């Protein structure tokens, strides 16, 4: 894994945490994104380009649930 991939994986792990502050960071991150006018595939690509989804299903669920709210 390259340094950029390591960073993207670490960001995904952090955003998927259930603790109060990382959860607030993830919500702020997702809420700051603009998906207006994008088709679903373009929106999900835009959403996922800054981090890599974590391996744990519960973390993925938290992140994707917030994306779905948008």
Automatic annotation (TrEMBL):
Domain SEC7: 10-70
One annotated GO biological process: regulation of ARF protein signal transduction
Record membrane topology: Peripheral membrane protein
UniProt xrefs under InterPro entries: Sec7_C_sf, Sec7_dom, Sec7_dom_sf
Organism of provenance: Dioscorea zingiberensis
This protein's name: SEC7 domain-containing protein
Molecular function terms, GO-annotated: guanyl-nucleotide exchange factor activity
Lineage: Eukaryota, Viridiplantae, Streptophyta, Embryophyta, Tracheophyta
PANTHER family in alphabetical order: BREFELDIN A-INHIBITED GUANINE NUCLEOTIDE-EXCHANGE PROTEIN 5 (PTHR10663:SF312), GUANYL-NUCLEOTIDE EXCHANGE FACTOR (PTHR10663)
Superkingdom of the organism of origin: Eukaryota
């Amino acid at each position: 894994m390259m340094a950029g991939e390591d960073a993207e994986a670490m960001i995904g792990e952090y955003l998927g945490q259930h603790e109060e502050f990382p959860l607030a960071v993830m919500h702020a991150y997702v809420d700051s994104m603009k998906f207006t006018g994008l088709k679903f595939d373009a929106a999900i690509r835009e959403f996922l380009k800054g981090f890599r989804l974590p391996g744990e299903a519960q973390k993925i669920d938290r992140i994707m649930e917030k994306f779905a709210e948008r």
